[in-house]
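Dear Dr. H.,

I hope your travels went smoothly. While you were away I took the liberty of generating a structure for the chain from your last submission, since the lab meeting agenda had it listed for discussion. I wanted you to have the full record in hand beforehand rather than looking at slides cold. The sequence, exactly as received, is reproduced here:
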Amino acid sequence: MGFDAETLAQLMVDKLPEAWNQIKGANTFPGWVQDGDVDSKKDTLVVFLAITKALFAHLASADSLTISDAHNNSITLDANGIKVVSHGNLAISDAHQNSVTLDANGAAIANGAQSIVVSPTSVSVNDGALEVT
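The corresponding predicted structure, in token form, is as follows:
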């Protein structure tokens, strides 16, 4: 399933009647709503939250989810796993100084100061401590 602005907007339009019916048929309201009397700002928030809930329920039931941008970079989640397509550099890192970088120079995997770099001409471990050409 593609997930761009147009798809999101259409999905929200499609889910709005369902979300609104859930709100109208609700017997209880959030604590900040007095006696079921919803003013315009609170009403907007309730509708937004209901649409968001319906949207995420729909996305959770999908066989796949693809998020893409105007540059054709994308992330796809499906039964085969996660696929990332980047038309530029790709960098993944975490809070533990682990990283994976894919760019025009090749591929690099690092853990703090320890690294393996695969370039078009060589494989280097720990900044040249071991190099295979």
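Two observations you may find useful: Residues 71 and 87 are 7 Å apart (CA to CA). Residues 32-36 have pLDDT under 50 and may be disordered.

With kind regards,
E. W.
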